Amino acid sequence: MGGSHQDDTFRPALLVVDLQEDFCPPHGSLALRGGRSIVDAVNDLLELPFTLKIATKDWHPADHISFAVNHSPPNNRPFISTTVVKNPYNEAETDTSRLWPVHCVQDSPGAGLIPELNLDKIHHVVEKGQDARVEMYSAFTDPFEHPSVSTSALRGLLQEAHISHVYVVGLAFDYCVRHTALHSQRYGFQTCIVRDATRAVDPGKGWQEAEEELRAAGVVMIDWQGEELDRVRHLEEGC
User: How far apart are the C-alpha atoms of 133 and 146, rounded to whole Å?
Assistant: First the structure.
């Protein structure tokens, strides 16, 4: 019957983006308001029978280009200043990037996934942002295309598992969640963001602009109780 065929081809993945100490109160260097509060919703999602469950981590070297302290004054004010990043392999390709406080430095406490997150349910942890020369909001790759500079293992993991749908949660909605979802949709995965399980750096204008871009790209915004997640709830473990 049609329903059973649909279930055979429905292979959903959950992406938990950058739920790290530095993005969460009370001590994170780039803490988002309410960032830590999403963990209960994320853990509830991790209990569902997703085919694949992946967490991502910002994993920056100390000299990363996105850190305001690595730039000269007066253009080195966190959250306010921006910098033009050139593709190190093609200087004609550029990207304007916001500057941030130092965050998620490799092997630092702030780079750790928060302890409340149920890591026992995570199949893989994917690190991103290791190349000091480029920003990398997306968990898939940096923004450059001619050529790309830094690419993670994420796309390969999803393809190897024959994933059809990707559900994205985590931090921050208007940056890493946004760009991860855009790449996911672009790469052919039907992509949703669970609005109950994400928070934004700029919860007003930033959220609105991100949601408009995501919807235009075909990414679906869903709620925890929405029918899109009912499809996952009805799967059996191991399908």
Answer: 15
